[in-house]
């Protein structure tokens, strides 16, 4: 059986990219909100890291949606998913969440960058200014809802796969949680990477704050991966076969051990722990650690999607 | 803080209200899933007698012609296992792979547009191709791997018990008619006088992957020839 082509394969790598981007967007927003709430408050719009998140989140979610639409066999009929819907379908509910998420995301970005936008607009569009100041008054509500939507979006990609009852590796209750947590950490990594690329201070309060959350996040992710596979193996039968196949010596086994566990989790964790004790963070350090995390999460999405579909019962 | 908390609650309230208004416009076809036991006089099912089947593929051909199924895809396959035993006493096992018309159909549950649905009148699992966007979620969700994208319509397709082609004219499905050994029996599960029910009462049958809870309506009568398989 080849790694990328086999019987029963329905969803290919574009879907893995979509899953990756949706989680990334949700994660970036989540960390931008945390940064604003706990560290920066009214100065948030100055921060290259918040700016990076404000760019990454919409771009990622648009890109992801674009891939999703493009991957339909009838892309021009995409609107039907919005008009008709089915309450029992994870995809229907997910698309609903995606739409609401984008709306609230833009509202939040408008709130955060209100001063800058007002400056740019000057007196040219009084309506826009009035709308903006109205939005700013609702900021607490917008932020709260956006947190809920971002978390839903992060978990949704996992639910999307876990609804496939014929595949023991996918039909697994830990999957949505695993996708949520790894999505958050990819969002954190993207925010850091984007931030330093926008000339943010690699030793700044933002980086220290995000790194502070990143260590527990990585530990939780390792724990979830362990639970995920231990659960499959302990339940025996086809689930056990599926898990052991995925983790074995094939192509995907390498991707998992070297890519997901090695590059994606162990190295960033080691760097983070090491940086805790040493003094200054440099650009290269932040950029490399973040890239490793991103690669790891991307490989995890592919690993789950492909090995999952290999193991139909 | 007090104010912002109240604002937040207001926002969540609005969100929930929005969602419930949207609920009123829910696709009616998906309802069949929520009340699977809606009473109707007809519930179609099929039996494949693997003892009678000789693997001639007449069913596959007939289905292709009647339902205009292009090359490269098919609504029904006959899977051959074997040979078992020593020459000249060799035997094969043939089993039918096609839509099982699940009562709790995973394809229907996951379809975002309601294009995959269960016909309330007949229990047939069908596809409304006008609604299908080709997301292929149903194809991934079907544990029997019998759905495919029709190369011409670009929508999901599969066996529909000839709902549109022959049942509408009061005829038996094409594959049933074409079978030279009468290995296929089609009929109404709710009619105790039907050949289908009589056959099911006479011979022990099995259904594939029942442990997934899909409640398939394609019954197999296992061949007594050949290997005992685990
Ligand atoms: S066999 Fe597959 S396509 Fe047919 S009803 Fe069941 S899940 Fe749907
Ligand atoms: S491919 Fe068509 S029938 Fe299948 S789930 Fe998607 S929209 Fe529904
Ligand atoms: S019942 Fe009709 S659609 Fe289904 S396999 Fe037989 S001929 Fe084809």
TrEMBL record, chain B:
Stored InterPro entries: 4Fe4S_Fe-S-bd (IPR017896), 4Fe4S_Fe_S_CS (IPR017900), ET_IronSulfur_Cluster-Binding (IPR050954), TAT_signal (IPR006311)
CDD domains documented for this protein: PsrB
Organism, as annotated: Shewanella loihica (strain ATCC BAA-1088 / PV-4)
Lineage of origin: Bacteria, Pseudomonadati, Pseudomonadota, Gammaproteobacteria, Alteromonadales
Assigned keywords, A-Z: 4Fe-4S, Iron, Iron-sulfur, Metal-binding, Repeat
Residue ranges of domain 4Fe-4S ferredoxin-type in the record: 44-72, 90-121, 123-152
Single annotated GO MF: metal ion binding
Protein name: 4Fe-4S ferredoxin, iron-sulfur binding domain protein
Keyword Membrane: no
Entries under PANTHER family matching the protein: PROTEIN NRFC, PROTEIN NRFC HOMOLOG
The UniProt record lists the keyword Amino-acid biosynthesis: no
Pfam family, one: Fer4
Alphabetical list of Gene3D superfamilies matching this protein: 3.30.70.20
């Amino acid at each position: 059986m080849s790694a990328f082509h086999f019987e029963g394969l329905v969803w290919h790598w574009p879907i893995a990219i979509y899953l990756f981007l949706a989680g990334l967007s949700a994660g970036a927003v989540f960390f931008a909100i945390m940064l604003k709430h706990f560290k920066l408050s009214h100065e948030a719009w100055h921060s290259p890291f918040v700016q990076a998140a404000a760019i990454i989140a919409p771009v990622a979610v648009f890109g992801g949606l674009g891939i999703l639409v493009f991957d339909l066999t009838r892309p021009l009929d995409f609107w039907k998913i919005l008009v008709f819907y089915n309450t029992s379908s994870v995809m229907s509910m997910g698309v609903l969440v995606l739409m609401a998420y984008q709306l609230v995301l833009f509202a939040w970005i408008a709130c955060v960058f209100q001063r800058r936008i007002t400056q740019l607009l000057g007196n040219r569009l009084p309506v826009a200014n009035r709308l903006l100041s109205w939005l700013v008054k609702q900021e607490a509500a917008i932020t709260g809802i956006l947190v809920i939507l971002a978390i839903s979006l992060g978990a949704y990609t996992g639910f999307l796969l876990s609804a496939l009852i014929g595949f023991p590796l996918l039909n697994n209750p830990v999957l949505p949680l695993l996708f949520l947590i790894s999505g958050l950490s990819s969002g954190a990594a993207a925010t850091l990477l984007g931030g330093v690329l926008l000339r943010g201070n690699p030793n700044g309060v933002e980086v220290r704050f995000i790194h502070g959350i990143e260590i527990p996040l990585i530990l939780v992710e390792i724990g979830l991966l362990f639970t995920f596979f231990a659960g499959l193996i302990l339940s025996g039968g086809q689930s056990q076969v599926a898990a052991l196949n995925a983790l074995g010596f094939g192509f995907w086994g390498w991707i998992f051990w070297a890519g997901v566990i090695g590059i994606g989790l162990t190295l960033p964790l080691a760097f983070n722990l090491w940086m805790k004790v040493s003094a200054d963070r440099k650009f290269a350090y932040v950029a490399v650690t973040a890239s490793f995390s991103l690669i790891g999460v991307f490989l995890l999405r592919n690993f789950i999607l492909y090995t999952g579909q290999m193991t139909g019962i | 803080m007090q104010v912002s908390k109240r604002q937040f609650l207001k926002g969540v309230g609005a969100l929930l209200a929005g969602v419930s208004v949207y609920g009123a416009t829910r696709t009616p076809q998906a309802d069949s899933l929520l009340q699977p036991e809606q009473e109707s006089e007809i519930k179609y099912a099929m039996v494949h007698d693997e003892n009678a089947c000789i693997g001639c593929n007449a069913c596959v051909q007939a289905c292709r012609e009647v339902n205009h199924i292009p090359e490269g895809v098919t609504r029904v396959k006959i899977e051959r296992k074997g040979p078992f035993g020593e020459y000249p006493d060799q035997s094969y096992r043939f089993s039918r792979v096609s839509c099982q018309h699940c009562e709790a159909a995973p394809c229907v549950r996951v379809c975002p547009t309601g294009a995959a649905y269960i016909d309330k009148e007949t229990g047939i699992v069908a596809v409304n191709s006008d609604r299908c966007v080709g997301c292929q979620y149903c194809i991934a969700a079907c544990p029997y791997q019998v759905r495919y994208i029709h190369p011409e319509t670009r929508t999901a397709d599969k066996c529909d018990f000839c709902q549109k082609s022959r049942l509408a004219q009061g005829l038996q499905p094409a594959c049933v008619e074409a079978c030279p050994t009468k290995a296929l029996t089609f009929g109404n599960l709710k009619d105790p006088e039907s050949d289908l029910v009589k056959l099911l009462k006479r011979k022990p049958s099995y259904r594939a992957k029942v442990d997934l809870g899909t409640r398939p309506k394609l019954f197999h009568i296992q061949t007594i020839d050949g290997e005992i398989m685990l």
